[in-house]
Amino acid sequence: MSKKHDFWNKQPVPQNKVIFKQDGEIDHSRELKHDENKLPDGYKWSSCNLTELCEFLKYNYIQDDTFEYSYSKDLLEWAIHPPWYRDEWNIAIRKSDTNEIVAFMSGIPLDIRVNDKTMRMLQINFLCVSKQLRDSKFTPMLINEEKRRMNLQNIWQAAYTVTKFLPTPVAKITYFHRLIHTDKLNELGFCEVNKHSHHVNGETRFREMQEYDIPRVKKMLQNHFNKFKLSLNINEEYIKHWIMPRKGTIYSYISKEEDKFLTFYSLDYVMKPNNKIIKQANAFYNVGNCLQDAIILARDLGFDMYNCSNISVDEEELKKHGFVEGTGNNHYYLWNWKINQEIKPKDIGFVMI
Ligand SMILES: CC(C)(COP(=O)(O)OP(=O)(O)OC[C@H]1O[C@@H](n2cnc3c(N)ncnc32)[C@H](O)[C@@H]1OP(=O)(O)O)[C@@H](O)C(=O)NCCC(=O)NCCS
Fold first, then answer.
1. Confidence of residue 16 (pLDDT cuts 50, 70, 90)
2. Which of 29, 59, 185, 336 has the fewest CB within 10 Å, making it most exposed?
3. What is the pLDDT of residue 2?
4. Distances (CA, A) of 38 to 141, 161, 196, 251, 255
5. What are phi and psi of 300, to 5 degrees?
6. With contact defined as beta carbons under 8 Å apart, do 231 and 323 qualify?
């Protein structure tokens, strides 16, 4: 018998199995709720600017006593403020008296394709509840309100990743790491490896992507997306916002000779005891066989390691390029959509940041 979930067991998500005879919606109702859901006394619905969000996440997002991820304002702007974002979908809950943020969740509309069906969905991210108010059920409140607001704009499906196992993931993914500056990583106690076996050799013949590359990159990336079961339909606006290089945030390079293109984003990993930063490059997309170029570019740009998950790739390919399997896992979920065939990590084309 699987674990009992007071909230998730009542939601339109697969409960006891993942593969169904037919794909499709779980809840077909089209009931709209025009009034905001009620919050406990002393709290109010709100939104927040990126400076406030950055501060809130710094103290409350994924971390423990030894490390935290440093989500800069630029990174948040890139991740959740495409020109078409709607403030009402980036939901904050505040204390009514002090205005302090106590919970947050973002929602970005994307055209997500599951097998042969493309649907406008909300990609949910940056769910976070203040450390002082955990276990107070703010998460279900945020989710119910996000659902109500997306339904008002005729959106009935969502996609999200959660490290925890909830009812019920489409796929479980694993993270892999290509260590680059092993001297520094060893010294900081991040790992203990022989530096010679992780040395990155070679030069790259990729150049930085320019604005005039947008149509070509759009075509390459869409062709790449078309190969996967869970993927995206994109347009040039997507490329302009999420792929065009932004110094310190998103790095995109294109092959000088072939139809190959790669892009990764920067996310600093802070080691709390000594406040040292490990510069991490995280794979966004690799189109064509260009993992080696991505690692070389990450090295040349001063990153200490290059990370990716096993989505879109064969694990054998990762091992061939010197990646080591990490201890981290994540799960991909769909809200109000059931699938009729297995989706493995390598069938997923779309990275949720
Ligand atoms: C994740 C987090 C928001 C959960 O908050 P919480 O105070 O522990 O949980 P709440 O009391 O608000 O809600 C409990 C419900 O939310 C569910 N839940 C917990 N984490 C969840 C998540 N990441 N996504 C969706 N639902 C989640 C629980 O399973 C529970 O539902 P159930 O009774 O049906 O099982 C909070 O721990 C947090 O901010 N952590 C740091 C940031 C983080 O890890 N964010 C998630 C990234 S995937």
1. confident
2. 29
3. 66
4. 9, 26, 59, 42, 53
5. -65, -30
6. no
Q: Kindly report the three-state secondary structure assignment for every residue of 172-213.
A: EEEEEEEECCHHHHHHCCCCCCCHHHHCCCCCCCEEECCHHH
β-strand partners of 104: 92, 128
Beta bridge partners of 262: 253, 286
73 neighbors 50 (Cβ within 8 angstroms) = yes
Q: Which atom of ligand 1 is nearest to the CA of 330?
A: 48
Question: Is residue 125 within 8 Å of 71, Cβ to Cβ?
Answer: no
Residue-wise pLDDT for 251-266, tens only, equals 999 999 999 999 999 9
Q: Which among 102, 127, 353 is the best mutation to test ligand 1's pocket, defined by most ligand atoms within 8 Å of the CB?
A: 127
pLDDT digits (tens, 9 = 90+) for 88-118: 999 999 999 999 999 999 999 999 999 999 9
Q: What is the mean pLDDT of the chain?
A: 95
Work out the widest C-alpha separation in the chain, in whole angstroms. 62
pLDDT band of residue 351 (cuts 50, 70, 90) is very high
Identify residue 232 by its one-letter amino acid code.
L
CA 139 to ligand 1 center in whole angstroms: 6
